[in-house]
Amino acid sequence: MGIVLMLHSLWRWVVLALAVIALLKFALGWLQKKNPDTLDRRLLLAFTASLDLQVLLGIILIVNLFLTGASNRTALEHTIVMLVAAVVAHTSAIWRKRADNLFLRNNAAIVLVTLLLIIVGVSSVNGWHF
User: Residue 95 gets which letter from DSSP?
Assistant: First the structure.
C-alpha cells in the first residue's frame, strides 16, 4: 500500500495544477465574454479525469484501512469530503454541450467549489482547522 499512498500523495499536485489552470482559463474567458473552445473542453475533461484517478487511489487506500482495521474518523471525513468534491466536479457535465459564455462561468464556479472542498478535505487529514 506504500506505493498507492505515494501515488495518491504525488497525484494531488497534478489535480491541483489542472484545477488552477482550468479556473484561470475559464474565469478569464468568461470575463472576456469568449465562447468555449476545444482546449476548454479538454482542460475540463483532464481535470475531472485526474480527480477520478485520485479518488480511485483514495478508495483503494480507505478499503485497505477498513480491511486492516486501521480506519479512523479522520480518514472517513477525508474520504466523504473528497467524494463530494468529485461529485461536484462531475456536475460540469450539465453544461458540456453549451457553446456560449455560460459554459465558462459555470465551470469556473464548479472548479472553484471543487477546489474549496479539496482544501477542506485535505485540512482534515493535516489537522488544520478553520
Answer: G
Q: Structural domain boundaries of the chain?
A: 2-126
Question: Using an 8 Å Cβ cutoff, are 11 and 50 in contact?
Answer: yes
Q: What is the pLDDT of residue 127?
A: 67
> For residues 39 and 22, what is the distance between their CA atoms, to the nearest angstrom?
10
Cα–Cα distance measured from residue 52 to residue 96, given in angstroms and rounded to the nearest whole number: 17
Place of cell 506505493: 3
Whether the CB-CB separation of 10 and 67 falls below 8 Å is answered with no
Query: What CA–CA distance (Å, rounded) separates 73 from 96?
Result: 36
Please provide residue 96's backbone torsions phi and psi, each rounded to the nearest 5 degrees: -55, -40
The predicted structure's pLDDT at residue 96: 78
Cell of 118: 479539496
Q: Taken in order 61, 85, 119, 15, is the CA torsion positive or negative?
A: positive
For 45-71, how does the pLDDT look when each residue is reduced to its tens digit (9 = 90+)? 999 999 999 999 999 999 999 899 887
High-pLDDT (> 70) share of the chain, %: 97
